[in-house]
Amino acid sequence: MSLPVPPAFPKRNLDVVTTTLVGGLRAPAHLVGLPRPDPHMDLEDYDPDADLMALNWGPQHPSTHGVLRVKVWLDGEVCVKAVPYLGYLHRGVEKLCEKLGYAQITPIVDKNDYVSPMMNELAINMAFEKLLDIEPSPRASWLRTILAEIQRVASHLLWLGTWGLDIGGAVGGGATIFMYCMRERERILDLFEELTGCRFHYNTHCVGGNRHDPPVGWDQHAKEVLASIAERSREYDQFLTNNAVFRARTVGVGVVDPVLAMELGVSGPILRASGIDADLRRDAPYLAYDQVELRVPVRTGGDNFARYEVRMAELLESIRIATLLLDGLPEGPLSSQKVVKLPAGIKSTSGRSAYACIESPRGELGTYVIANSDRKLAGQPYRCKIRPPSLHAMALIPYLCPGLTMSDMVVTVGCLDPILGEVDR
Amino acid sequence: MSETSTPTPATPTPATPTPTPTPALYPPDLLALCQERFGLDELDDQGPVVPRDRVLELAHALREELGFHHFVYCAAAHFLAEGEPGTEGFQPDRSLVAYRVRRLCRPDGRRGTDSFPFRLWVPTGESTPSLTAVWAGADWQEREQYDLVGTLFDGHPDLRRLMMPDDWPGHPLRRDYAIDTTHFPWR
Fold it and tell me: Is the ipTM of this complex over 0.85?
């Protein structure tokens, strides 16, 4: 038996492919203008003689990474139309935010993106700080940067493990890579437990600063953990990147048009794997990101393999930045000492509003807050809208799935890294 | 890397509280579009209020002429009526719809990002043009706002509920949505 020959290595960066300008932005020419399926297609317009089968994929299927339901119409094994149904995990977080004070909201939003809770806390507290005009102390903003980067490592590890399960037997019996990734992620959870006392829902960011100061020796421990993960991630690379089965399942599957992705609001690794060189950490620096030089990995394959490459490169880059920043943690108070004036009473028909966004492991995670102009309710926001990156990534499903087989759809949707907790909120 | 990026320091120096010059809120081409073609004022960090009949024109101009290809969010908020009808200061029952779009490079091709927020007021019972035809990402966001706040979007291809069940009564994020409980925080 002979294994399939791996396809040629995809072109890797914008300097070696022909690029075209999209509104002044360089994009790979071979990806712009790919055929775009109509997500609202009438099935009558498809071949009327075809014997289509409607299949409900989810909401309880393990390969949907949560409670996502996609209604799929199949012609044989090939998808014709896919319609996602959301809301199975809707918990009314935005409604709850309207009824709680600014300082009470952090533990609620922890559960949104349950794979990277630090990022949720950071995004919402940055928006509140902007609204209330508070500057976090230098030590807090430095610590937040470190925590965000360590959290990104944990999130990408969990994505790799569960995606390995999606691919199944291709990567050494399916569960092998999952076990390795969970082992590494566990060490990061231990690190956070040492810092905050919680393994998962930390509640460590607050408006104006952080709650927990790193204990003595924490930075050394963190460096050891990160160094060992960097070493082991090279093993995953050896394990997967040149694996013929892995390449056959991922190269050229689920190719994303960068212009469609931008229109849909897709950001983060998916956009960078389609050749768009954009990263909020570098382009609109927040916290301490202006203190380090960030190398943003960009690939131009646009397919599952390119997204895998981008995430693995980001993982190593996050380890590098976090290790660098751990050396320079400034001394000083963790919380801002400023007295806050609540934004009520400001003459405006709608109340003041603010938007703050960060680069989460899945893309642009933002929060739009409108302050309450009623003096009695000034301590709580009037409207708090969370902009989840996964919601926009999932909007790609109706465009990506038509033309793929059912087994490729599992791999492709897994590669979008959707977290249903933040999609449904 | 670009010429503009700073070289990596061997060990990062702690952030010193030096005042950095804040970039202008609106880049010159955006300012010209807003003021000269659309006559928008109040160009602060919250974004201008756009008349409903011109929002589609503005959206097309933003995307085709200024390169705002990236859709960020659409958020609606409901406001109850204020004052007595016919008196001064009367505000009808209405929704605020806030959009934000982004471009991922500067007009001259430099690295960087600009985002542009704009808002519009929609009286309850009336609808606002959907921007789905301009940015496909507005599709689900507008469905979510319709579902939770009850704002109507004109010309949306598929305006169904997104989060709540199809037979759910009312729109939960409206201010007149009653929740019959005495328990905090839902009362």
Answer: no
Cis? peptide before A39, omega within 30° of 0: no
What pTM does this model have?
0.84
In a domain, A72, yes or no: no
Domain membership flag for residue A44: no
The residues that bridge with B105 in the sheet, in sequence order, are B111
Nearest to A97 by CA among A385, A422, A387: A385
Contact A207, A124 (CB under 8 A): no
Domain that holds residue B112: 28-154
Query: Are the beta carbons of B14 and A90 separated by less than 8 Å?
Result: no
- For A112, the token pair is 């949104």
pLDDT digits (tens, 9 = 90+) for A125-182: 999 888 888 888 888 888 999 999 999 999 999 998 888 888 876 565 567 788 888 8
| Residue to test with chain B: of A289, A321, A368, A424, most B Cβ within 10 A | A368
pLDDT at A11: 53
DSSP state of A45: G
The answer as to whether A177 is a domain residue is yes
Q: Could you read off the pLDDT of A201-233 as tens digits, one per residue? A: 888 988 888 888 898 889 899 999 999 998 888
DSSP string computed for A114-173: TT-HHHHHHHHHHHHHHHHT----HHHHHHHHHHHHHHHHHHHHHHHHHHHHHHGGGGTT
Q: For residue A262, which of A6, A2, A11, A23 has the smallest C-alpha distance? A: A23
Q: Give the domain CATH number at B146.
A: 3.30.460.80
Smallest Cα distance from A95 to chain B, Å: 6
Query: Cβ contact (<8 Å) for B161 and A138?
Result: no
**CB A53 within 8 Å of CB A73:** yes
Q: Which of A13, A14, A25 has the highest number of chain B CBs within 10 A, making it the mutation to test binding with B?
A: A25
For chain A, what is the domain count?
1
Q: Is B123 on the interface with A (CB under 8 A)?
A: no
